[in-house]
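cache lookup: miss for this entity combination. No prior model stored, computing from scratch. Input as submitted by user K.M.:
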Amino acid sequence: MSNNVQLADRKITIGGFFIVVILIYLIRLFYIQIIDDRYKLDARNNALRIVTEYPLRGYILDRNGKLMVSNEPSYDLMVIPREAKGCDTLSLCEVLGITKEDFFKRMKKASQAPNSPRKQSIFEKQMSARVYAALQEKQYRFKGFFVQKRAVRKYRKPIAGHLLGYVGEVSKEKAEKDPYYQEGDYIGVSGMERGYEEALRGKKGKQIAVSDVHNKIIGRYMNGKYDTAAVPGKPLYSSIDMDLQEYGEWLLQGKKGALVAIEPETGEILALISAPSYDPNLLIGGKERARNFARLYQDSTLPLFNRALTAMYPPGSIFKLIDALIAQNDNLITRSTSFPCARGYPPMGGKPKCHPHPPVDLVGSVAYSCNSYYSYVFREIVDQRRFPRFIDGYNHWREMVKTFGPGTRLGTDLPFDKPGNVPSVDYYNKVFGKNAWRSNTIVSLGIGQAELTLVPLQMANVVAIIANRGYYYTPHVVKGIGNEKKIDQKFKIKHNTAVTKREYYENIIDGMEKCFNQPGGTAYTSKVPGITACGKTGTAENPHGRSHAVFLAFAPRENPKIAIACIVENAGFGGTWSAPIVSLMIEKYLTGKITRPEFEKRIQQVDLIQGKNLITTEFH
Amino acid sequence: MDRVAVLLYILLVIMGWLNIYAAVYDEEHQSILDTTQKYGKQLIWIGGASIIAFCILLIDANFYTAFAYFFYGFILLLNILVIFLGREVKGSHSWFRFGDVGIQPAEFMKFATNLALAKYLSNVNIVVNQQFRLKIRDIFKNYKNTLYALAFIGIPLVIIKKFQDETGLALVFAAFVIVMYREGLSVNFLIFGMMTAMLFVLSLIVSTSSLLIFLGVMALLSFLFIRRNRLNILIVSGIYLLGATVVLGTNYMYNKLDDHQRVRIDVLLGRGNVDMQKEGYNVKQAKIAIGSGGLLGKGYLQGTQTKYDFVPEQDTDFIFCTVGEEWGFVGSLIVILLQLTLVLRIIFLAERQRSDFSRIYGYGVASILFFHLMVNIGMTIGLMPVIGIPLPFFSYGGSSLWSFTILLFIFIKLDANRLLILR
């Protein structure tokens, strides 16, 4: 039993401790309540009200300094329900064009949590200037209502919807997680608007206003000492060439597909098109926004789907270029190596099939796109003697391929890009069973078919690599943020591929040049006048229908300025549809004009979506 | 029955209720009896509390002694069950929901732990008499009972902190150290604890290297002043090594804290670049509200800072802001002194008990009430980091009001019964 006398003295210590703590607290209270007047408000018992000042969103300019996106004023009608008593409901409904039931529904919403009858909330979003004027005229009748000016986006031309993205109201979850946003704030939802949200949004300002008991603002708290000014968003200097982008979208009208153009030596994206596209002004907000969005969302051609970044297509024959590079690098073939072709791959009874062409060496195999040649090449790579097991060979091939970009997200500055797919050993073990597959089982990978997929951006990156002879910079759409024009350092890092020897690239580029410039080459009809362009056709077999036409090219051969990949869905052979588009784009970008108006007209007017094929047979 | 304590209780509860009315005051619901509003609900809670208090006074005092361990076990079980069955509120699983009404079992763990600790400590001795020797067996013998007693406190603390994620409610259990001190807890524990806390705070403010150098110099100085036998040298170097570990471990521990907890400590210490519009907002608004009260306050229902929702959680954890703003320094002084008087009254009553059980229980009540008072008011005036615990009898909430009522009235019953206990 601990009832000894000494311990009883501890009550003094405990009681003393309690009293000392409370004394300290009282001194502190005395200090903040009576001595320190930092916390004092105006003697007339005023309240503070925080008024948020919204910054202007940053402009977006194209690579030549042309304005792509700016802002436009818009007017929100706000209400403080508690003060809206005695408002002329009828004429307000009339001005806004709503029914009385609507009015009460909205008032109820503004009064209930998370809103409050004491706080302002939005009653009508983005009114037209006409409604705004009408409201102002009768302002005195609408007690408790006031108009808040905000800015909405203005897209200068009805193009580049996927690229620029759009701005929308921030989601509830995001607003809860990120202290910067409050419900009702705007945020970049997709495209550049999302990717560069932090730069574009600027910083909200805050004014602390003092208001009297009637909630009327009578001044600024501490003469604005604690106010912060809104900082406008930084301008974005995009690498996009707006004219090229517009021209490309015009060419791709009536077609489904995608086109990506890159400046090889910097990795800057010159144009990024997904067709069909939409006018970004449809989604800036207001009443029409929901309707427009629903209409676009339901369209069977999926205009909201950004094919350039997220559609995973089999690359088809363009993939042969990578095989050729890897095989040369592994010393399995040389420029003069040739393989038999019997309208197909002989060891497997003529499958995969091939089309008639003269016997070919490496250069010819690119120019004529021989399927048999690359079936041999693929199996040579995978079945190399130096690998004890064939899956090691396969993994070697896979790792080499991945250094060219496929199979991983490139890490561009646009959100939502997909990685494509280079199937793994595990995947095939699952499909065929362990040890139940060999190089001949998957030989169609060698010609870019089967499970192999790339997104158009990755295809463009592959051409950029070839144009650069072995390296790339991560593709990006912004050259500079703000006036200091800084960009993320990761876009300045040079990525080397597994094949860096210039000679290997020159060998296949010889073939790519023939493809355009030698009669019989797969894109000879799309030859770019006056420019040495190098290209490669591809036909991506599509399990759901007609093949997709793929084409990639860069130009000029020396010191390439542009690398393009284009894919047109369900258009068959790459040389027919994609190559002409790419050819026109190159001419437009490098010379600034088109010397083949007839050719241009035929390509532009064809409507593959409606099935109206205007192109004459001579063109095949 | 001690009338002073009961009167203080009634006064505080009524003042609390009037304050909640002021804090959530809304012109559209002017009736203080409106049960759709928090003040109306609080009235229901107060009614319930009186019934509970009445029942407690009716039950035989021996019941609480006899069932002390049962209460502890049962409510501990509820606290474990709530982790799995409770509804999630703001990320923590600490509420049982019955329709509109929520019950937080952690609140009731306080009186249960108090009962169990009182029962345990009244049967064993935690005073250390034996000669100090550096033998594991002796240390264990000396401190065995202390460790068991600490386990009574530690188990609910860990469950509530770790699994229910209610840091504030869990920290309250630290208050029982005061009870153990009264019952003979070795002063070494307190010194050790305080040193650790001081070093922790210091190493957040001062740079690690200068603190280590300081410790080293102090260690060398200590060696000059002690008798240099093996034992002393071992103890002193042990203490300083431990100190160095605390200093070095601080940053690690500190980074292990949740973001919001770290920010709250930063706000308190003025560390790093805390944005007063964001992280420091609560504390700043609370200080503005209290500071704007001045000497006599703005008058009842006239507070602008609290009325216009500038202060978050103003009806629960930050209720003291309403007191400070509307009743000024004088009002705050009265409220704090009333609370302190109640605490000191309980200590006085505890000391006059014949039974150890009643005394220890009484100290538990006083310590818990004081801890709440200290942390809650401390955070509103910027002397403590923001920790979510209620102000006794003032903050809105049925669980906390009922838990304080049960805690207090069991003691009042024990006290009323004191003359019947034979030693």
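stored under new cache key. Residues 242-619 of chain A form a domain with the Beta-lactamase fold (CATH 3.40.710.10).
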